[in-house]
């Protein structure tokens, strides 16, 4: 889709940009003309991203460190586009959920999205420019999954946060939406779902009979960031092959 959409002259921040979906979004936005800042906590991933796409600026940060994030993102802005992609998935049975797993998941999957969105939205408002925010959620926000008590809950909270953001930021011409993918065939996704028995149980619940590819998610994010979705805010775009209808 990047060939059909232009983001020339616009500045974008992408979190969790070292690998997978976030990395692919950062590269696609850069190739579509945006000035991209990629945020990750892994320096090696950012270095390889710079080699792949030298025009991208990078920020190496732990999103749980609010003070560091406030200073670094504030200095790097202003931005008109934001993709909150960073997330953690610490899978544990409900009876074995630990406090540390709960806190880390809340910090990254929910708290960091709220915080970075505050920083960037304030910049947009101060500049008097319209903007678009896309939060990467999951089909797990809509359907209970075994061993996903914390992950499902944080993604569900993210969906509602996004709706409230859309309501409060709409008068400032800032749109906020989520994408909610099924399993995505990132490198990690291929490893985690390589067992045919495990993957068959999930694929059998997807009417299209397959998992999502990275480009399926990237194209949806670019659409929601673009002016082609100018009347869309507060929505969750399911990229699940029909999982929720089965």
Automatic annotation (TrEMBL):
- A GO BP annotation: glucose metabolic process
Gene3D superfamilies listed in its UniProt record: NAD(P)-binding Rossmann-like Domain (3.40.50.720)
User: SUPFAM superfamilies this protein is in?
Assistant: NAD(P)-binding Rossmann-fold domains
PROSITE patterns, alphabetically? Answer: ADH_SHORT
Recorded GO molecular functions are:
carbonyl reductase (NADPH) activity; L-xylulose reductase (NADPH) activity
What are the protein's UniProt keywords?
A: NADP, Oxidoreductase
Question: At the top level of its lineage, which domain of life is listed?
Answer: Eukaryota
Matching InterPro entries? L-xylulose/Carbonyl_redctase, NAD(P)-bd_dom_sf, Sc_DH/Rdtase_CS, SDR_fam
Asked whether the UniProt record includes NADP among its keywords, one would answer yes
Keyword Oxidoreductase included in the entry's annotation: yes
Record text on subunit structure and interactions: Homotetramer.
Similarity-based family: Belongs to the short-chain dehydrogenases/reductases (SDR) family.
Name under which the protein is recorded: DER reductase
The encoding gene: Der
